[in-house]
Amino acid sequence: xxxxxxxxxxxxxxxxxxxxxxxxxxxxxxxxxxxxxxxxxxxxxxxxxxxxxxxxxxxxxxxxxxxxxxxxxxxxxxxxxxxxxxxxxxxxxxxxxxxxxxxxxxxxxxxxxxxxxxxxxxxxxxxxxxxxxxxxxxxxxxxxxxxxxxxxxxxxxxxxxxxxxxxxxxxxxxxxxxxxxxxxxxxxxxxxxxxxxxxxxxxxxxxxxxxxxxxxxxxxxxxxxxxxxxxxxxxxxxxxxxxxxxxxxxxxxxxxxxxxxxxxxxxxxxxxxxxxxxxxxxxxxxxxxxxxxxxxxxxxxxxxxxxxxxxxxxxxxxxxxxxxxxxxxxxxxxxxxxxxxxxxxxxxxxxxxxxxxxxxxxxxxxxx
Length: 368
Ligand SMILES: *Cc1c(COP(=O)(O)O)cnc(C)c1O
Hints:
Layout: H1 8-29, H2 36-49, E1 53-57, H3 60-70, E2 78-82, H4 88-95, E3 99-103, E4 125-129, H5 140-150, E5 153-157, E6 165-166, E7 169-170, E8 177-181, E9 195-199, H6 202-211, H7 233-242, H8 246-264, E10 279-281, E11 287-290, H9 294-303, H10 333-341, E12 342-345, H11 353-367
Parallel strand pairs: 2-3, 2-4, 4-5, 5-8
Antiparallel strand pairs: 1-9, 6-7, 6-10, 8-9, 11-12
Helix pairs in contact: 1-7, 2-7, 3-4, 3-6, 9-11
The structure holds pyridoxal-5'-phosphate (PLP).
Residues 59-61, 85-86, 88-89, 131, 157, 159-160, 181, 183, 193, 195 line the site of pyridoxal-5'-phosphate.
C-alpha cells in the first residue's frame, strides 16, 4: 500500500456532483474574467478572516507582489522576511527592485524570530513579511509592535495558513495585508493557480484592485503600471464549493497530527512540531518532523512508497540567485539546521488510519 503525501483526487470524489455543477455553471454563463463567483469568494474569504475586503488574484505569489505594491514598496526599499520559506516570500521582493533582508527563524516553529527583527531594520526598511509556515501563525504581537514603532507595513504571507488562528485572530487579518494561495496543495486548493489579498484598508483595497487590471482606474486610464493578475472565475467556482468544508478538513489534519504526536513523542532523534500557546488553530498545511537521522528515515519512507518532501532544503541566504546580497553560508544557524533536518509526511484530511499507521510504523522502525 503506497501512501501519497497528498491525494487531491479524494476531495473531488467527495464533492463531485457540486464541483461538476459549479464548473458547468461557469461554462454556461461565460463570465470567465472576474465573474460573480469571484466576488462571492472574495466576500466569503473576507468574512472568514473578519476583514473588510478580499481581492482575488492569479496566484499567492501575485497576492504578495500586489500587496507589497499596495504597501508602497518601491525600488531600493528593504523588506524583512524569514530566511526559511517557499521561494515566493523572497522572490517577489527582488522582482519589485527592493532588497530582501533575511532574518533567522525560531527553532520550535520554523517561523521568523521576532527577537531578531530589529537588528535587520535600517532607514531603508519599508515592510516586514512574516510567513506562517506549515499552517502555524508567526508570533504576530511582537512583530506588529516592532512594525508600529518603526512605521513599517506588515504583509502576512498566509499562503499556508488559511483559517489558522493566532490568539483567536484569523491568519491574514492582523497585518496591513494578508495573502493567501489556492495552489492545489494548500488547505483550500483550487484546480490551478489562484490567490487572494485581504485588507481592512479601503484605499489599499482600491489601489490593489486597480493593480490586478494593469493599474487602470477608471477603465483605460492608468496612473500606475500594474499587472494582469485576476483569480479565474472557474477557480472561484470550485473554491466556493470547497470553502464550507475547510474548517472540518483542517480539524481532520489536527486529529492526524495528534496521533502522530502521541506515536512519535517517545522516539529519540525525532522532533515533532511544537504548537505554541498563542496558536489557537494550527491548520497543518504540512506536518513537519525534524531529525539528525533524516537520510535514514527518508530511505525507509521511499522503500515503503510513503510520500514525503523536504520543505525546504536550502534557506534563502544560500540560494544562488541571492548571492549578490552578500550573506555568508553560516549566517542564520537555526534556518540552516532546519534545512538539514526537516521533512514533511502525509497529514491530509482524507488519509485513512491504516495509511497513517503505516507511516508511523515505518518511521518508528527506521529510528529504533
Ligand atoms: C504556496 C506559497 C506561496 C505562493 O503561492 P502560489 O499560489 O504558488 O503562487 C507563497 N508563500 C508560501 C509560504 C507558500 O507556501
